[in-house]
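ok trying again, last paste got cut off:
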Amino acid sequence: MALSIVFASNNLHKINEIQQLIPSELKLLSLDSIGCYEEIPETALTIEGNAILKANYVTEKYGHFCFADDTGLEVEALNGEPGVYSARYAGEQKNANDNMQKLLKNLEHSTNRNAQFKTIICLNINGEQHLFEGIVKGKIGFEPKGNQGFGYDPIFIPDGYTTTFAEMSREEKSKISHRGLAVEKLVRFLTSM
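nice, full thing came through this time. structure:
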């Protein structure tokens, strides 16, 4: 099953993470490699909606099989915030450290540290659309720890672990992460075609 498919992202961390998770016969194309240099609007009000917007943009404008993901961190004590606004929680500059600091400040007086990462992957292939979900539950730590990963990884401790995502190797994180789980479902679907 040799198949070329576009992953609608310019986030090198995400591209590298996904590249590790997919079989070698699946050729992953980046937005750069198809000549898509514009910022794809993420204006939906849900994580699912943003994944669909990005995949549809590439399929409609460039005609490629495509998958796109959107991920959000949902914190129980903050009514699901930052959720769909995870990347720009502290502002349009999309600074991971600013986002983490704002989240920790908002949780300062909360004993409930429960949170979950949710990834939705939208796949457009052969005129059909398919959605795959990955969720990992955990807690928000009290301070950033570790220098692996990206985004909120330094403050997210998955259930059953005492270390943050940022303290884990990429391989260890990929086995249990929200994105890893969603990609596993995507790969299972693609390899069964």
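cool. The first helix runs from residue 12 to 21. The domain at 3-191 is CATH 3.90.950.10 (Maf protein).
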